[in-house]
Amino acid sequence: MLERLRFCPGSGVHNMPKESPLAMALQILVPFLLAGFGTVSAGMVLDVVQHWGAFQYITEIFILVPALLGLKGNLEMTLASRLSTAVNVGKMDSPIEKWNLIIGNLALKQVQATVVGFLAAVAAVVLGWIPEGKFQMSHAVLLCSSSVATAFIASLLQGIIMVGVIVGSKKTGINPDNVATPIAASFGDLITLAILAWISQGLYKYTYPYVSSLVCAFFMLLTPLWMVISSKHPASRTLLYSGWEPVITAMVISSIGGLILDKTVSDPNLAGIVVYTPVINGIGGNLVAIQSSRISTHLHFHCAPGEVPDETKGCYYPCRTFCGTGANHRSAQVLILLVVPGHVIFLYTIHLMKSGHTTLTPIFMSVYLATALLQVLLLLCIADWMVHSMWRSGKDPDSFSIPYLTALGDLLGTALLALSFHFLWVIGDRDSDVGD
Fold first, then answer.
1. Is residue 60 within 8 Å of 262, Cβ to Cβ?
2. CA-CA 20 to 30 A from 236: which of 130, 253, 269, 323?
3. CA 196 vs CA 13, 96, 139, 187, 415: distances in Å
4. Could you tell me which residues come within 8 angstroms of residue 105 by beta carbon, excluding any fewer than 6 positions away?
């Protein structure tokens, strides 16, 4: 249950940060572009490693990709949102309280990363086995060890970076709600994908099967240690027992997106989708995470758990998100305005780096940008409804909403992008570059 917060003038409690749309846009722009170039780099890495032996012969690794990249939404962005709210409401002013929050949350994140990494591998094995009707134990063990090791190492590295960003934002007077979640994703996709490719290819080449089993067992056996550390801190202890539903559900949703990616990449006419998938998924997830974090912080300031502002009561309607009288419609407008120019920059970056194997024809760019815009529009509307609904039911949206939203971003992005590539193929935009 959330603690009721009261903020009165002169009480000594922090005031809600005041921001103009321009100041908000400028604060968001740099981390947004940084995160975008990180997803572009991840797409280029995926475009290269799809031809490696491990990815060619164990195609279920593609099912792992959205689930593991989605950990930044499940864990890093959730951590960023929780700590951003803690900064804004003054819970990190005391050094002791600050480090208790940080250590407890990092330990909790390692527990969740290890468990979700294992479950993502199980989901990949099941989703790969059902349509093909065959099961190979060596592939299953390699998937489990690669997934668990990648989740653990990437989560630890990104968690340390995230703490630095939050503390740095507090010291420089920048609202961490605007910068923390996109920076959490800036190198997250690249780091995670590079580690996954390196570990899976290494285990694939190293023919002794027991090595994969030992790697998986080593990281799994560290889990009790992280649980003990996490349980010593009240805030993380609560989430250690109650915070699994959104993380695991989000992993399942992302895995379905991974299955779509696996089946699309298997079609040689559509293999060019690979380089764009991390970009469209990452950008959509970054933008909706910012909005979710801002709405959550606003609710923590102005409403008791179970109560919502008057303008959000009653049935939800999409216009409320962008044109309402609430405090967050301006941020939704700013975020939606970033979509098209941002993606144009990232598309031309991919083109200049001679990656992607897809010519930037006017038809391709129009279809791609329409897809990206539709994805973010849907995500921002869902975020508005979901965050307020969770608050109304007494759940902290900082811990529950972002995993769902970023996973839905992965699923929507992958599915809409696959439909776009199919559409382009059907209407004849199939020059020799399209595909691979």
1. yes
2. 253
3. 44, 36, 15, 14, 23
4. 79, 82, 83, 233, 235, 236
Look at 138 and 386; give whichever has higher pLDDT: 386
CA distance 86 to 101: 9
Residues 6+ apart with CB under 8 A from 413: 257, 277, 280, 281, 284, 375
- In this prediction the pTM is 0.76
How confident is residue 391, by pLDDT bands cut at 50, 70 and 90?
A: confident
Residue 64 CB neighbours (<10 A): 28
Position 290, amino acid: I
pLDDT at 356 over 70: no
Burial class (CB in 10 A: 0-12, 13-18, 19+), 161: middle
Q: In the structure encoding, which two tokens stand for residue 183, read together? A: 């920076």
Structure tokens at 141: 């063990």
What does the pLDDT look like over 28-46, one tens digit per residue? 888 788 878 888 888 888 8
Measuring CA to CA, how many Å separate 74 from each of 68, 85, 224, 255?
9, 17, 20, 13
Instruction: Give the pLDDT band (50/70/90) at residue 150.
Output: very high
Residue that has been written with the tokens 């994969």 in this structure: 212
Please give the full DSSP string across 83-138, using - where no structure is assigned.
HHHHHHTTTTSSHHHHHHHHHHHHHHHHHHHHHHHHHHHHHHHHHHHHHH----HH
Q: Are the CB atoms for 250 and 406 separated by under 8 Å?
A: yes
The total number of residues written for the chain in this structure: 436
